[in-house]
Write a structure and sequence with these properties.
Aspartate Aminotransferase, domain 1, single chain, 38% helix, Aspartate Aminotransferase, domain 2, alpha/beta, globular
């Protein structure tokens, strides 16, 4: 009798444990999205708070809002609940079997790689380089593909740097992936921040091998709704809906209804987000933009900056800031870059500015 093969799987996320337990601080520069909205930031009527409704495979008004926003057929939209994180999990679960090879950018969001490892994937990486402003290199990525590659995973805007990938580069990667029968998954959760005119854009097309994930969380401060979505070719989208019967089954209906309200008020929510990001980005440039101990590129549309420390240790700096200055950020080791730090710019301007001043003081003390 053949013995089953036991795969060594990752069954936790070190970053999520850190994010949930270790980032709380008076001056929080660790949160990666726009500061949370209050209920009063949405105009809500009594019917928007209904507890129950028809949502067996998605609440139709929410699906229609997403389909209309991105100009795609409704049968290409999957709304599993659980935000972009669970959307990524569901999408990867539908595409990856134990032992499959998956290419992932480096640096990247740790939850992507830990989820893939939990699924039993063989994760290989390709590098995004600071010396190239964190850009994708389609030729290098294509050179890393093999006949065993089943999926390529990207983030756009890039997490953690905030770099924007060109559509030409993503389509070149997709064309190379198609030659080995692979898909490309693009986490677009930060891309909403770039839609200054309100018109949404996406790398997804119904007849391509590209699928995307996103949510209302990072760009609009609506993390409590856990409204995430997947745009995928119709047949693959249906596979994901059926697979979700084994996972989340159906999202909380009240959250779906509130997400519809949010989609109808995106202009106002976008204005709120810009009102936080713009002064915070200006403050970062003023306070840390030319700091001699930071090697960095600052992108105009990101909620985060990912500088490299020219001297000192990011983890030691984090412990010093949190214990002595009531300030937090994310040490770069969670992105595979222990000499970097991720600094968030989505908080309230007054507290963000003070946190940046305290970070500068700590850097000056190291010098």
């Amino acid at each position: 009798m053949n013995k089953p093969i036991l795969l060594q799987r990752t069954l936790q996320s070190s970053y999520m444990r850190f994010a949930k337990q270790d980032t709380a601080a008076r001056f929080n520069l660790a949160m990666s999205g726009i500061a949370d909205c209050a209920l009063s930031d949405l105009e809500i009527g009594p019917d928007d708070l209904a507890l129950h409704g028809s949502n067996s495979y998605g609440y139709r008004p929410l699906i229609d809002r997403i389909a209309t926003r991105f100009g795609v057929p409704a049968d290409c939209v999957v709304t599993p609940g659980g935000g972009c994180s669970f959307s990524n999990h569901l999408a990867m679960s539908a595409l990856v079997s134990p032992g499959d090879e998956v290419l992932v950018e480096d640096p990247t969001y740790e939850l992507l790689t830990s989820t893939l490892e939990c699924l039993g994937a063989q994760v290989r990486t390709f590098e995004r380089r600071r010396s190239q402003d964190w850009r994708l290199d389609p030729q290098e990525i294509a050179g890393n593909m093999t006949p065993r590659t089943r999926l390529v995973v990207l983030t756009n805007l890039h997490n953690p740097s905030g770099a924007m990938a060109s559509e030409a580069d993503i389509q070149a990667i997709a064309a190379a992936a198609a030659t080995v029968g692979a898909h490309v998954l693009v986490d677009e959760v930060y891309l909403e921040l770039t839609f200054a005119d309100g018109a949404a854009r996406t790398s997804f097309a119904p007849d391509s091998n590209v699928l995307v994930t996103s949510s209302l969380t990072k760009a609009y401060g609506l993390s409590g709704l856990r409204c995430g979505w997947i745009l995928a070719p119709a047949e693959l989208a249906q596979r994901m809906r059926r697979l979700n019967d084994l996972f989340g089954v159906a999202p909380p209906h009240i959250a779906e209804r509130l997400a519809v309200v949010a989609f109808d008020q995106l202009d106002r929510l976008r204005a709120r987000a810009r009102g936080l990001l713009e002064p915070n980005l200006a403050a970062y440039r003023e306070i840390l933009g030319d700091h001699p101990d930071l090697d960095q590129v600052i992108f105009p549309t990101a909620t985060t900056v990912f500088p490299r420390l020219r001297r000192g240790d990011a983890d030691a700096l984090f412990e010093q800031l949190r214990s002595e200055q009531e300030t937090s950020f994310v040490p770069g080791r969670f992105f595979g870059r222990p000499d970097h730090l991720r600094v968030a710019l989505g908080g309230q301007p007054e507290s963000t500015r003070e946190g940046l001043l305290r970070l500068r003081a700590a850097l000056d003390k190291v010098a």
